[in-house]
Design goal:
rod-shaped, 38% helix, five-stranded antiparallel β-sheet, alpha+beta
Length: 237
């Protein structure tokens, strides 16, 4: 600040020695203005450096948190997430292994030849055995025997001949539970039924003729085959 004062004194003195002394008060005013400007600049400069240092410190802190470079930080987070997912998957596998597995039981059979001249209460036969996991279904007798205790699903499709009707029922251990009806005065017609049954080991399920109006078929109780009539079932749990 002293240098500035001396410099301004020198400038003023160039115009004349006598004028320098006469304008001393004016010179002092100018010096004061310059000093104020320098002081203001110095304060602004210090404030700028303080803000700059603060921003720099914040950037260093962020870099430390992200484990610079940024790509490595994201990669680390991804690896951590994958590790958690793998741990959860392993835990689920352990739980599944600890649970007792349910054996596979299921069958599907279709009727190839027409069932002709059947009597009421006869068991419907399905000659073509497509699937028989657990060996529960006997295609010769048409009866399913539960190899294990559990909840089972069954479905049946019965196709009647043209102009005839047909009534059947799903039977469990000799008791009828659910009925099907198929019939039309001019063409073939299919009756469908499905159910869920709780079975003990050795319980039997089959399809039985139940024609409530025998006169409709004039005594000829028959079911259309060729794969259009079928019987299926499987263990749920």
């Amino acid at each position: 600040m002293t240098f500035v004062k001396h410099f301004l004194v020198y400038i003023w003195c160039i115009g004349g020695f006598s004028y320098c002394f006469q304008g001393d008060s004016l010179l002092e005013d100018e010096i004061k203005k310059v000093e104020d400007l320098v002081s203001l600049y110095t304060k602004q400069n210090n404030t700028f450096h303080e803000k700059f240092n603060l921003v720099e410190m914040e950037l260093k802190s962020l870099k430390a948190d992200l484990n610079v470079p940024l790509g490595k930080g994201i990669q680390a987070q991804t690896m951590n997430t994958n590790a958690k997912l793998n741990a959860q998957e392993k835990e689920m596998k352990r739980e599944n292994q600890a649970r007792p597995s349910t054996p596979s039981v299921g069958f599907s059979a279709t009727m190839i030849e027409h069932n002709q001249d059947m009597n009421l209460q006869d068991t419907v036969k399905f000659q073509n055995l497509v699937t028989n996991y657990g060996n529960g279904f006997d295609h010769i007798s048409g009866i399913f025997r539960a190899p294990i205790r559990g909840l089972y699903f069954f479905s049946v499709v019965i196709l009647s001949h043209a102009g005839e009707d047909m009534e059947t029922e799903i039977v469990k251990n000799g008791d009828g539970y659910f009925r099907t009806y198929s019939g039309d005065s001019t063409t073939w017609n299919a009756g469908r039924q499905s159910t869920v049954l709780q079975l003990d080991t050795g319980d039997q399920v089959w399809i039985r003729i139940l024609n409530l109006v025998p006169s409709v078929n004039n005594g000829n109780v028959r079911i259309f085959g060729y794969g259009f009539s079928s019987f299926s079932g499987f263990l749920i749990s």
